[in-house]
């Protein structure tokens, strides 16, 4: 397999890692965990939209699947590269 494939996966992995981190931080805290300890428990009238929460959940899952696929793809590429 060409080395460009690995570089593409690495770049995609970096982008999806940053996006996944940002998307997880955008989620609202569900209880008295660490997020409410640092001011995450403050409610806002704009954050109450259930449609926005559902879309945020969908985007987070999508980026998580892309991130996981990049990890698996890099692992398979390394396995093939070491065998040859």
Describe this structure in words.
- The protein contains three helices and no strands.
- By secondary structure, the chain is mainly alpha-helical.
- Helix 1 runs antiparallel to helix 3.
The structure class reads: mainly alpha
Strand and helix order: HHH
Main sheet overview: none
Estimate percent helicity: over 70%
Task: Compute the separation of the termini in Å.
Answer: 10 Å
Contiguous runs where pLDDT drops below 50 for at least 5 residues? none
The residue-averaged pLDDT reads: 83
Portion in beta strands: under 5%
Query: Strand tally, please?
Result: 0
How many H/I helical runs? 3
Q: What global shape is seen? A: elongated
Radius of gyration of CA atoms, rounded to a whole number: 18 Å
Topology, element by element:
Elements: H1 3-26, H2 34-37, H3 50-83
Compose a concise summary of this entry.
Helix content is 74%, strand content 0%. With 84 residues, it is mostly helical.
List keywords for this structure.
84 residues; mainly alpha; 0% strand
């Amino acid at each position: 397999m060409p080395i460009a494939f690995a570089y593409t996966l690495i770049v995609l992995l970096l982008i999806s890692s940053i996006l996944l981190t940002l998307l997880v931080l955008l989620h609202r805290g569900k209880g008295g965990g660490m997020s409410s300890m640092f001011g995450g428990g403050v409610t806002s009238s704009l954050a109450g939209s259930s449609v926005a929460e559902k879309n945020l959940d969908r985007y987070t899952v999508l980026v998580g699947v892309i991130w996981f696929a990049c990890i698996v793809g890099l692992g398979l590429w390394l396995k093939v590269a070491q065998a040859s």
